[in-house]
Amino acid sequence: MNASLTISGWNWLWPALGFGAVSALVLIWSYRASAGHEPRWRWTCLGLKALAIAALALCLLEPLWLGQRARPGANQFAVLADNSQGLQLRDAGQTRTRGDFLRTLVDADASPWQGVLAETFDVRRYLFDVRLQATKDFSELNFEGRATALGSALRTVGERFRGRPLAGLLLLTDGNATDLPGGALPDLKGLPPIYPVVIGNRDPVKDIAVQQVAVNQTSFEDAPVTVQAEIGAAGFRNRPVVARLLDRTGKVVQEQTQDGRGDGETLAFRYQIKPETPGISFYQVSVAAGDAPTPAPGASTPPAAAGTPPVSEEATLANNQRVIVVDRGQGPFRVLYVSGRPNWEFKFLNRAIQTDEQVQLVALIRVAKREPKFDFRGRAGETSNPLFRGFGNQAPEEVQRYDQPVLVRLNTRDENELRAGFPRTPEELYGYHAVILDDVEAEFFAPDQALLLQKFVSERGGGVLMLGGMESFQEGKYVRTPVGDMLPVYLDKDDGSYEAPGPVHFQLAREGWLQAWARLRDNEADERARLEAMPKFEVFNRVRALKPGASVIATVRDEKGAELPALAVQRFGRGRTAALMVGDMWRWGMKDASAQADLARAWRQMVRWLIADVPARVQVTAEPVAADPAGAIQLQVRVRDEKFQPVDDAAVTIAVEPVVFAGTAGAAGAPLKLEAEPALSEPGLYTASYVPRQTGGYKVVATVKNSAGAELGRGETGWSTDLAAEEFRSSAPNVALLEEIARQTGGQVVAASDLGDFVKRLPQLRAPVMETWSYPAWHSPLMFGFALLCLLAEWGLRRWKGLP
Q: What is the DSSP secondary structure assignment for residue 617, as one 8-state letter?
């Protein structure tokens, strides 16, 4: 703070004034003899001597310099040094990393500013990366921290020094915080002035980095997984950048090359792949400069460089890889097909599904309706053949009922599956993932079966698809039934007139072009050509309109040019429903071998979409813990019984296994087993926490057992942790964030070269505990030197000009 001048000897005011007045009279009298000389020199000499006398008279008043400063030893001062991996970067034109520069900056021998700071303050030293830890002399700096939890570190300092005289905080970092999404400011409440010291310069560095990777999974058969990677290539303009997609064995699945652009522009790479195995798969996106020098085969390493990794022209290689997870689901997925009569639709559908190893199609086909084959004249109300009356095997379940429909079961698991016809209990129906209804009327289902089918979708989360036919939709009298209520179309007719549309041509709607499972080609031109070559269909169920929230995937165009909805879908509760109004899709497959292959593929993709999000009895998810700088993962296991009701008394064991890619450091060890605990927030939910220790993929397998020790089921999931992704997202220091932190707290950004001078000025800045200092301005060689200088100047001037 600035010092002020004050007077302490006010009791000497009148003597000083008297001395000044007498001295003035004496001076005027003494210079009367020089009245004949030039006036300006006479008055100059008079003024010099008067200044000397005034300075001496001022000393009688005892002027003092007063100010405030931080009381030595009474205030604390925190110094925080960044210990994260981000400081392993090398700035452009530098041979040392930012970490080396910081290590030199905090070295007590090389930089004595810490000793100067300790003369006034009680200095507390800390390192921070994923957490804040105290240090004695910063000797623990290794710059291996997995994250820069700047916000968490400042919050911890505020809590630790609450109510204590903390004068300030010196922050040594590059400002690239990983726990402040979107550049948000940390919580600065209660913090003293913060003085950031920016580590690193703002010049762009040469670096290739995987900035973002997105995985999109669809039911498109040829390439059901799309990987989109955004690559930053600063300093590689017009140079080739190679991006490779690798599997766990190190095999290159796909490779693409693009030329680098400007420093602020990213390169977009897109891969379409089909995983070879179902379930959880791991891939790695790896990028590098395409023209980077590689050693020739058989070339030897110079002795001086033996054992030393080659120096890359990039600032860091830690951000050149990213692990991704693909979950294609683990079957078998069971689909129940219910048909009111044998038809060709099942032939083509069954043939198509047989090639999908993960899907099982179970069929329940009625070959005869509930019609009596003979008209027996029996007693009133009798439903069995009266010829068998009186025999001992007349149990109701064993009597041959002559009005029972004849059902054929195909592809069943065992002889008991569907033995009684369509399921009547949740335990029977909920074992399937989807149900397909083909040309079967509403009266086929008993009221409780129809309601159960609706709950299968809304509560269990299954899928239902109704195909067109003579006894489907409105013709099947599904109006105002539980099954009709969940379909995406209105089944009632708007007027009494109804005309069959005749031959119709199938085409995709706007929403259908956006859905990968509705397309069979990977480009628009080929898809349009395929649609134009499709045959016309003769069987079509006309509907009044779509329900709110439903989407039209495909339409048909009749001979008059009118477009009618042909395939509509919607969400219903936890599941989804679809309505395909075309009743003779088999005509498509009768055209030729190519069309038959397209029809089979269309069926497979539609069924895959129908079962895509159907939950299993044991569901495992991995969710990042919000605002956790260590990157902790909460593993969640949801357990359901055969009725898909929550199970609260299960024993859940979770095995976590790190995934190691071929050619990378690290070895796969035994999976770590965790015991999940029941959550209080949701019935049937079990949770456990896991903190990853290394970058890469992790596979999780949950085993669930009941109270008796019998296994209820298993579930698996996976996730990838890229500890360096956020850390190396930006190679330039975040100066804007540090400047805003300093402004909000009343501090300032300090240049590293000015740190020594700044530390010397710190005691004069405001602190919680201050003391007042004073210094006598009169008791100074400067004051007396000034008076003597004035007298000598006056004497010399008089001698020079010959004044008396």
A: S
The residue assigned the tokens 């071929």 is 662
Q: Which two tokens stand for residue 755?
A: 């740190």
Query: What CA dihedral angle connects 749, 755, 760 and 766, to 10 degrees?
Result: 20
pLDDT tens by residue, 123-177 = 999 999 988 999 999 999 999 888 888 999 999 999 999 989 999 999 999 998 8
Cα 619 to the chain's mean position, in Å?
Answer: 21
Angstrom distance (rounded) from CA 311 to CA 313: 7
Instruction: Give, in order, the Cα–Cα distances in Å from 272 to each of 223, 284, 457, 525, 609.
Output: 5, 14, 31, 19, 18
- Determine the length of the chain: 804
User: Cβ(212)–Cβ(230) under 8 Å?
Assistant: yes
SS3 236: coil
pLDDT for 32 equals 61
Residue 501: per-residue pLDDT: 73
Number of H helices, E strands in the chain: 16, 34
57 pLDDT exceeds 80?
Answer: no
Pairing of strands 166-173, 194-198: parallel
- Under a CB-based contact definition with an 8 Å cutoff, are residues 760 and 774 in contact? no
Tokens of 160: 């630790």
pLDDT (0 to 100) of residue 403: 62
- Tens of pLDDT, residues 360-372: 999 999 998 866 5
Task: Using alpha carbons, select from 492, 501, 490 the residue that is nearest to residue 568.
Answer: 490
Query: Which residues, other chains included, contact 775 with Cβ-Cβ below 8 Å and sequence gap of 6+?
Result: 3, 64, 65
3-state secondary structure of 731: coil
Closest among 220, 271, 269, 254 to 521, alpha carbons compared? 220
Encode pLDDT of 357-402 as tens digits. Answer: 889 999 999 998 866 555 555 555 555 555 555 555 555 554 445 5
Helix (H, G, I), strand (E, B), or coil: what is residue 721? strand
Token pair of 471, please?
């006894």
Q: Give Cα separations from 408 to 133, 346, 362, 404 (angstroms).
A: 72, 13, 11, 13
Dihedral angle over CA of 580, 586, 588, 589, nearest 10: 140
> Which tokens is 401 given?
């009922």
Supply the angle between the helices 39-59 and 781-801 in degrees, to the nearest 10: 160
- What is the C-alpha to C-alpha distance for residues 86 and 310, in angstroms, rounded to an integer? 20
Terminal CA-CA length for the chain: 50
Q: Give CA separation, 47 vs 504, 794, 798, in Å.
A: 116, 8, 12
Nearest to 474 by CA among 458, 491, 489: 491
639 in Cβ contact with 645 (< 8 Å): no
Q: Reduced to 3 states, what is the DSSP secondary structure of residue 344?
A: helix
Q: Where are the alpha helices (DSSP H) in 235-355?
A: 344-353
The token duo for 501 is 């549309």
Q: Is 786 exposed, middle or buried (0-12, 13-18, 19+ CB in 10 A)?
A: middle
Rg (Cα) of the chain, in Å, rounded?
43
